[in-house]
Design a protein that fits this description.
The structure is a homodimer of 326-residue chains. Chain A has 326 residues and is of the alpha/beta class. Chain A has 11 helices and 16 strands. Chains A and B meet through strand 12, strand 13, helix 8 and strand 14 of A and strand 12, strand 13, helix 8 and strand 14 of B. Chains A, B: InterPro entries: ADH-like_C (IPR013149), ADH-like_N (IPR013154), ER (IPR020843), GroES-like_sf (IPR011032), NAD(P)-bd_dom_sf (IPR036291), Quinone_OxRdtase_PIG3 (IPR014189).
Chain lengths: 326, 326
């Protein structure tokens, strides 16, 4: 089967389509004929060799497709349309998924739309609700708001928590899109100082929850933007990993909870539980079209290098999809 | 009434006993004739002017004594023996306490013992269970283990969670005491590298929960000592407030939850809820003598400066009590 591997850690030109054997099933697993997969930041970090995420030589952490084989008991049958997180191996014609991590694809969604859901919506759900403990009518600050996770988080915060949603992005085009999804306060970080705007929009109090994809560059401004007893969730380091001079007294006296997270290194049990809760609580919103998968562009498997490059250019709004089979 | 105030922000010599009016009660409050109060780190930080904790000019955040007046409905009566957190004003002959923050003193405990309980046990309870989410049979690392909060945390972790308890302290005398209270692994931080000892004691995995009173000086060693998905609770900065370089990627890839907290600046509602849960779950352990108040030394109100100096010398094991009235 066609599969994408990394020749050696480095740039997008290190990605290569090779022929590999179809993987063998173990108890509790399903074999999926992959229709679509998608590009995630974690793939790029892995490609660069910074965090070796999973033992699979084939990249890709999510798929949509059809069940072609199963091993052991499962609520799924051969022929079912499913989507979900995989332990690597998503950039290929066939992939293995843990049965308890597969989600039935609603009839109204295409395979491309389905491949745009698991990683970003599960991450947004986990960070907003499990880690960020976002409650009804609280205020949330979402950085990189036009990204895959950002666009998912705006929709979840709108429909689940009716939160006040403050977003940052780097262009009017992105911010306009965020407003359509439900964002209330739009901040262009290239033209405005976001901490000042956040304090203006919250009567000087700051926000209850921050979804931080940026890290070091935004450290002090995030600290200024968060409310007393706020929850700050770090899910990306687009602005650098190393913070110079962190003042612990301010974190302590504001009683801040700071949580670093990546979905990929979490345990199988964690992902299964998250998938189950997400399926029950959120999939109905896709069925009735209140929440939607946001797709930016589509590439073929052969153009995987171009797809990575496109994500690295930071111009995408929503997900970058890879069509593996038509 | 005799009361302790701060002349101007600075050292222990800035403390002064002055005469003040007995405070006036508002709805939902009790007036307490104070028998004992105690010294907490938060008093020292306030005395130094680093964090102005409460609007009360009189220092002191906890008392034990007798109810002499009440305003509004309350489950307490005039003459009841109570202990609890106050919004400042504890270092005085009379103090106001919110009725929903008062705890009935078990008959078996003296006023001095009672004054050694609220701040450190509520802090230990909050940090271990509410913030640290310590579960049965997990592993916890408790720094400054012979301190007031440390000795409370050891006992709670032992009796409530049956946790594996790893402690650090600076002398054999302190460590021996910690072992008697229930600590399993003793580390003298002056002679051993605590992160190496922690990894040895946990098969290289690290601990689930850290209670960190030290801050900057221990930053990298704590980061090395914590397990994947660990909860790290910062409740003191004895080793400095400023960390030179923080690597966010390691916090993110280990999925660490880092929470800064101080009990004093928390809201009245938070303290009332914490007090209620603590009273129901933990006071029975004092009644049957499984958990005990740990008292180091006692001073008179007039010697309050000496009491602060004693805490600053870091030689105490457990609480420093102030006898306000015999």
């Amino acid at each position: 089967m066609k599969s994408v591997i990394v020749k050696k850690p480095g740039g997008y030109d290190q990605l290569e389509v090779v022929d590999m054997d179809i993987p063998k099933l173990k108890e509790g697993e399903l074999l999926i004929k992959v229709y679509s997969t998608s590009v995630n930041r974690t793939d790029i970090i892995t490609r660069e060799g910074k965090v070796g995420y999973l033992k699979n030589p084939i990249l890709g952490v999510e798929v949509s497709g059809i069940v072609t084989e199963k091993c052991g008991e499962s609520s799924f049958s051969i022929g079912d349309r499913v989507m979900g997180l995989v332990n690597g191996g998503g950039y290929a014609e066939f992939a293995i998924i843990q049965s308890d991590r597969a989600i039935k694809i609603p009839d109204s969604l295409s395979f491309d739309e389905a491949a745009a859901i698991p990683e970003v919506f599960l991450t947004a759900y986990q960070t907003l609700f499990w880690l960020g403990k976002l409650k009804k009518h609280e205020t949330v600050l979402i950085h990189a708001a036009a990204s895959g996770v950002g666009t998912a988080a705006i929709q979840l915060a709108r429909h689940i928590s009716d939160a006040k949603i403050i977003v940052t992005a780097g262009s009017k085009r992105k911010l306009d899109f965020c407003r359509e999804l439900g964002a209330d306060v739009l901040i262009n970080y290239k033209e405005q100082s976001f901490d000042e705007e956040v304090l203006k929009a919250t009567n000087g109090e700051g926000v209850d929850v921050i979804l931080d994809f940026v890290g070091a560059d935004y450290w002090n401004k995030n600290l200024a933007s968060i409310k007393k007893e706020g929850r700050w969730v770090l899910i990306g380091i687009l602005g650098g990993a190393e913070v110079e001079k962190v003042n612990l007294l301010s974190i302590m006296s504001k009683c801040i909870q700071f949580t670093g997270t990546l979905l990929t290194p979490r345990s199988d049990e964690y992902k299964a539980l998250l998938t189950k809760e997400f399926s029950e609580n959120i999939i109905p919103y896709f069925e009735n079209k209140k929440i939607k998968a946001i797709i930016d562009t589509k590439f073929s498997l052969e153009d995987i290098g171009k797809a990575h490059l496109h994500m690295e250019s930071n111009n995408n709004i929503g997900k970058i999809i890879i069509n593996v089979c038509e």
